[in-house]
Amino acid sequence: MQINRYIDHTVLKPTTTLDDIRKLCMEAVEYDFAAVCVPPPFVQITSTFVGNTNTKVCTVVGFPFGYSAIEAKVAETVMAILEGAEEIDVVANLIAIKAGDWAFIEKEITSILPIVHSKGKVLKVIIESGILLDEEIIKCCEIYGRLGVDFVKTSTGYAEKGATVEAVALMRKHLPANIQIKASGGIRTFAFAKELIAAGATRVGCSGSVQIVKESQALN
């Protein structure tokens, strides 16, 4: 398994520095990670750092709580794409999910998805699976699967509970085959990353990516 190609190498802490971003990008290019996921203010410089490599530039929208207005998320998305983001990880409105306001959830994504796809970019929707009921996860998968997002993602990493094998398996069961899954939140070992991939994840978001790759190499 080429675990490196599953990894979104990530730094999203609110105190992120330019040196953090430079280091992240150097590691991502060295290890040929699928993407780097960075805070919105660093998208433009990140595009310069990774250049014409296999590593994509990813950023977040409505992060980390998801309750920004739809108009704010649209503006963030447009700005991110203009500055060079190739993948957008948007946090779903968790208040709407917990309230069962599925019409709002659908409106939110139908306001963002066409912008992303019209520019040939990728949209991942973060549902924060660790704080949702199974039936809420299933309903999210039904809506996002029908609307045609590119990925459904487990977590921001800011909730009490991150990615689990059970959540990924549940999502895989209820998503169309063409919709991918990104597992993130608390992924610190190769063994756990491998379990999540076996359950159906095609991306894993983590900050300890280099250590995970080294663990995988040690087993070969």
Question: Ends: how far apart?
Answer: 10 Å
Principal-axes geometry comes out as globular
Number of helices: 9
The share of residues in helices is 40-55%
Beta percentage is 15-25%
Strands in their spatial order, largest beta sheet:
1-2-3-4-5-6-7-8
Instruction: Let me know the number of strands.
Output: 8
Uncertain parts: none
CATH domain class name: Alpha Beta
Oligomer: single chain
Question: What is Rg?
Answer: 16 Å
CATH topology: the name is TIM Barrel
**Average pLDDT across residues?**
97
CATH architecture label: Alpha-Beta Barrel
Task: Identify the CATH homologous superfamily.
Answer: Aldolase class I
The assigned structural class equals alpha/beta
**Topology as a string of helices (H) and strands (E):** EHEHEHEHHEHEHEHEH
Main sheet record? 8 strands, parallel, barrel
Pfam families: DeoC
EC number: 4.1.2.4
Pathway: Carbohydrate degradation; 2-deoxy-D-ribose 1-phosphate degradation; D-glyceraldehyde 3-phosphate and acetaldehyde from 2-deoxy-alpha-D-ribose 1-phosphate: step 2/2
Catalytic activity: 2-deoxy-D-ribose 5-phosphate = D-glyceraldehyde 3-phosphate + acetaldehyde
